DNA sequence: CAGAGTTGTCGAAGCGCTTCGCGTAGAACG
DNA sequence: CGTTCTACGCGAAGCGCTTCGACAACTCTG
């Protein structure tokens, strides 16, 4: 920078002001400085800038968990956030250890990041508490209990459950299961899981549907087991809604039980994505604009950092239920006494 | 830091040496300093450290393209790299604009990152050239033409194609199609695509297989169209290998043509992942240890940065072909004259 | 026991930028 | 025409660390 100043015949500070635009500089000076910058192929040093200005021009995004195989929707959040960040000339720092509030504030305390984006929020999230009390800027992809003063973008899973239920009710189903997230997540207070359960259990009866709440991890094995249990113990249940990839195991169990989809059993996934089309039958479900959501979360945070936005922005993203091939009218006959049912029972017994 | 020094009754520099361990400090001093650090809850400032030491303790990872919906294997690379980075107390900077060599070197030139990880490398990659000539440390997930002095980790796609071909040959198939990456990627010189083509075309004849090279993007629509064309023009072709998600469109086209998998047509995907199990029929294919690969790429770069490793490390990761349900013996009868064939022709004509 | 080497500590000079306060000159004002 | 503004440019003081050279106090050597 000193070289630039010398070459342009101006003071060091003038170069800085040309670059930052924080004070007015005469046209003449500006041009000379810019010319010198061009000639010397100068690039400002990020760390020096961060040190002097106190802002790193970086935001941190925490992955849910170190080893976690991210589900596609979360990966898309990240891609969206990355894009927004790059577009605003910020950098995006990726970090694991999402569950440790200490590690999260540390990044900001160390001046490595100016703000934080959190994913996978809990209903009562210590990380949010920590960030709030430390006064660090942040935004959420997800929601928490107390949303005052918080900027977030979240998918309206509750609404999606409701729409799914309504669709199934319209098709004549009177007993529907919800394959909610893993029980650990529920007890941990994972907001999306809580909302799913609450909406499901309050809304189903109003639609004349008996709700059966099942929890299962998204691992095919777990969901398969849970689904198998459900199918044998609840013969009246003719449809299921999954909150995620539980549909994999569910479809497997249905196949094993020799139940055809959608003729004998309907399946809806609240998180489907492009994926859904590939399955046979193509999966009815909700496609979320996850890329947009990630972008939004990053933009909200950056706006907060640059002082553009002071009021918190709260986005609840809605999405349409895309009816594909895995849902159909409720079957007339009950499953309980058919030959198929007996076959299935035998199969399950043998396992 | 000055406060720490004062509280511990030592010089500023001593505190620094305690922290960095770059000079020996007496046990007594060290304890006093550490105690003071503890009491004051001090954390070193990243930017200041970066400025003074000239190293940002950060590595940059470039996403293939800003808007790209990452395919799962790439997302898993990122997760793995993130994990390794966090574990080594480095930070991982995510950035788009992967195709612009200028943007890539800029991050290092600005001191925001000490090194770079590149994905989706081309056979003749200007970004690699640039990084090499600028003398910036980097590692690759992928390969390039000239590998001298380069650290990389790559999946052995060539080997996977070979294994897949061998498997199909064993099953009696004598005419196999390869659904390679999109033609743009091939002309751009995307290494994986080139290798796939070369191995396919040289190896197939040796196994008594007539190779048909097809290029298609991974979008279901494109692959569907390409597959439909193939099925009608090449009745002898009884199996296909896909390099990615082209199997989606392929399976769709097979269904539309009323061809059963695997009885009448076999499908192998060279990139399958957990995904494969969910499909009906479950997809035969190769599962790659992508998380490990990402981790490795990051570790290699960090070792290079910390001076632990001087010699470049080159890993070609092999993986097994997992035979699931989508491959079977070559059908006895030719497709050309069956009733089904005529039906299919009618269907394709109507589209 | 002098000279050489070792170990532990300190002070100070940066790293490359931002930003504050001051100074100067011309414009605007009464 | 003197006075107050405004616009613009300059110098210098940091930002919070790292690191180098100097130095003091020892411990070895022969």
Describe the structure.
The structure is a homodimer of 351-residue chains. By secondary structure, the first copy, chain A, is an alpha/beta fold. Chain A has three domains: 2-44, Orthogonal Bundle (434 Repressor (Amino-terminal Domain)), CATH 1.10.260.40; 58-155 and 290-318, Rossmann fold (3-Layer(aba) Sandwich), CATH 3.40.50; 157-287 and 322-350, Rossmann fold. Helices cover 46% and strands 15% of the residues of chain A. Chain A has 14 helices and twelve strands. The first copy, chain A, has helices at 2-8, 12-20, 27-40, 46-53, 72-87, 101-109, 126-134, 157-170, 183-188, 191-206, 220-233, 246-256, 290-305, 339-350; strands spanning 58-62, 91-95, 115-119, 138-141, 151-155, 175-180, 210-215, 239-242, 266-269, 284-286, 314-317, 321-322. In chain A, strands 2-1-3-4-5-11 form a six-stranded parallel β-sheet, sandwiched between helices. In chain A, strands 7-6-8-9-10-12 form a six-stranded mixed β-sheet, sandwiched between helices. In chain A, helix 7 links the parallel strand 3 and strand 4 (138-141). In chain A, helix 1 (2-8) packs across helix 2 and helix 6 (101-109) packs parallel to helix 7. The first copy, chain A, is elongated. The model of chain A has no long low-confidence stretch (mean pLDDT 88). Chain A binds a DNA duplex (30 and 30 nucleotides) through helix 2 and helix 4.
Describe the structure concisely for a colleague:
Chain A is α/β, with parallel strands linked by helices and 351 residues long. Chain A is 46% helix and 15% strand.
């Amino acid at each position: 920078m000193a070289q630039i100043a010398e070459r342009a015949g101006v003071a060091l500070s003038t170069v800085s002001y040309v670059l930052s635009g924080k004070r007015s500089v005469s046209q003449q000076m500006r041009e000379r400085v810019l010319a010198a910058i061009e000639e010397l192929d100068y690039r400002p040093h990020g760390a020096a800038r961060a040190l002097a200005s106190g802002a790193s021009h970086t935001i941190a995004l925490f992955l849910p968990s170190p080893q976690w195989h991210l589900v596609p929707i979360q990966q898309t959040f990240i891609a969206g956030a990355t894009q927004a960040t790059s577009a605003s000339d910020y950098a995006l720092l990726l970090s694991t250890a999402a569950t440790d509030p200490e590690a999260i504030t540390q990044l900001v305390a160390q001046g490595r990041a100016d703000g934080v984006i959190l994913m996978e929020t809990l209903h009562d999230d210590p990380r949010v508490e920590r960030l709030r009390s430390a006064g660090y800027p942040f935004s959420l992809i997800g929601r928490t209990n107390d949303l005052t003063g918080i900027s977030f973008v979240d998918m309206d899973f509750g609404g999606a459950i409701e729409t799914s239920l309504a669709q199934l009710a319209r098709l004549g189903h009177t007993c529907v299961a919800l394959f909610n997230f893993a029980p650990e997540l529920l007890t941990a207070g994972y907001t999306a899981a809580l909302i799913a359960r609450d909406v499901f259990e309050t809304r189903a009866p109003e639609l004349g549907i008996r709700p059966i709440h099942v929890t299962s991890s998204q691992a095919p094995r777990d969901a398969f087991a849970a689904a198998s249990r459900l199918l044998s113990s609840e013969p009246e249940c003719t449809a299921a809604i999954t909150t995620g990839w539980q549909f994999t195991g569910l479809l497997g169990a249905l196949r094993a039980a020799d139940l055809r989809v959608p003729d004998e059993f309907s399946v809806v996934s609240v998180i489907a994505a492009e994926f859904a089309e590939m399955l046979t039958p193509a999966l009815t479900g909700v496609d979320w604009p996850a890329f947009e959501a990630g972008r939004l979360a990053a933009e909200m945070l950056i706006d907060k950092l640059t002082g553009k936005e002071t009021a918190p922005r709260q986005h609840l993203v809605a999405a349409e239920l895309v009816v594909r091939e895995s849902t159909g009218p409720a079957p007339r006959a009950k499953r309980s006494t058919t030959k198929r049912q007996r076959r299935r029972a035998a199969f399950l017994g043998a396992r």
